[in-house]
Design brief:
Helix content: 40-55%
Number of helices: 14
Distance between the termini: 56 Å
Number of domains: 2
Order of helices and strands: HEEEHHHHEEEHEHEHHHHHHH
Strand order of the largest sheet: 6-5-4-7-8
Radius of gyration: 26 Å
Largest sheet: 5 strands, mixed
Structural class: alpha/beta
Length: 374
């Protein structure tokens, strides 16, 4: 948004001066003299602008140049949000995007300016997907997918977007990749992970996953020695899927009592009690818990202050919720690339900010051993 507005200001000033920046000819109607900072408070949040300054020649002496676009933008900031959102949801159709954004300034800006601004937005998205990750110093990786409906071949189709947030050594979360790979198969996850490593991502110290078979197979091929934590929220859903309706609340209470126990010893003791109880009352539930093995309890290897951030893939739930809140009135997105780009746009525009993980101060502490049979 900032780059878009600043480009419009440059175009407006070029027109007022009769020449582009750094051009020299005698027909210019004035001259530039620096820049000034200005903040606009919009529904996107505060936007810091670098506004060009200029002096225009006049018979009675020079006068300062004043932009007519800034007041227009300030008045129309709410309208701007709706139009830019429409642009992102337009499915990369340049004509629709141009028409939506051109309306923002009520015809004061030519379609070529808007088209160039949109192309820069697309270029920024494409550059973000290719950016070097070697300097990110990622120690943990969180991998999950989210389901969205898009239009393919004129039919509404459900696809999975694969998301890969990482955790830096200082505890800050950062999104590394958002991709439509056609599903959550082993091949899809392998391609995403190979893309991350090709862009310089080192081997993480821990990977937090949703428990999907395709993802676990991909991790086994690429990073077999890296510790893995299976999301306890996803496992709870698995357990409930194996039980009759009248037992659901009891299973849910027992499971949460186990994974939220205050000490590692209590967690392991409650695990044994859970298995003993549910082998008798509903054996598929106990077998589903046993299937996860130690990977469901990897969080016990880390300091208790980290357990909340290690136990689940909930670190990206806010991203899911914000995205789905914005598309709830549009049942089907125009294309898969629109969905992925909208995720990125929410981050790039500052509408979603990611905080540090709980317990980040002790991230440097090495994990302890874990023995479920103890």
């Amino acid at each position: 948004m900032r780059a878009f507005i600043e480009e419009l200001l440059e175009e407006e000033l070029d027109a007022a001066l009769g020449r582009a920046r750094y051009e020299r000819h005698g027909t210019a109607t004035g001259h530039r003299h620096g820049r000034r900072a200005r903040q606009l408070v919009t529904t996107f949040g505060p936007v810091e602008l670098s506004v060009p300054r200029a002096r225009l020649r006049a018979p009675a002496g020079g006068r300062g140049w004043k932009s007519t676009l800034l007041p227009a933008y300030k008045r129309l900031s709410a309208r701007a949000e709706a139009l830019v959102a429409e642009a992102y949801l337009a499915g990369m159709n340049t004509r629709r995007v141009r028409r939506a954004l051109a309306g923002l300034f009520a015809g004061q800006v030519g379609k070529d300016v808007v088209s160039r601004a949109w192309q820069r937005s697309r270029s920024a998205w494409e550059a973000w997907q290719r950016r070097d990750l070697a300097g990110e110093d990622i120690v943990r990786l969180i991998l999950d997918g989210t389901v969205v409906k898009v239009r393919l071949d004129r039919k509404a189709t459900t696809i999975s977007l694969l998301l890969a947030p990482g955790i830096r050594r200082d505890g800050q979360k950062v999104v590394l990749a958002i991709k439509n790979m056609g599903g959550e198969s082993e091949a899809a996850w392998r391609q995403l992970l190979e893309d991350l490593t090709a862009r310089g991502l080192g081997r993480p110290e821990l990977v937090i996953v949703d428990g999907g078979k395709g993802l676990e197979a991909a991790l086994a091929r690429l990073w077999d020695e890296v510790p893995v934590q299976r999301c306890t929220v996803h496992k709870e859903r698995n357990l409930l899927a194996h039980a009759p309706r009248h037992l659901l609340e009891e299973i849910k209470a027992d499971f949460n009592d186990m994974v939220h126990a205050r000490t590692g010893a209590e967690v392991l003791a409650k695990r044994k009690a859970f298995l003993a109880k549910w082998r008798l009352r509903c054996r598929p539930v106990a077998e589903s818990l046993e299937e996860a093995g130690e990977r469901l309890f990897t969080f016990l290897r880390y300091p208790p202050e980290q357990w909340r951030s290690v136990r689940t893939t909930n670190a990206i739930e806010r991203l899911h919720e914000e995205f789905k809140r914005r598309i709830k009135t549009q049942c089907v997105l125009p294309c898969a690339e629109t969905a992925a780009m909208l995720f990125w746009a929410l981050l790039a525009s500052g509408q979603i900010t990611l905080r540090k993980v709980d317990g980040w101060q002790s991230l440097a502490q090495p994990p302890a051993a874990l023995d479920l049979a103890a």
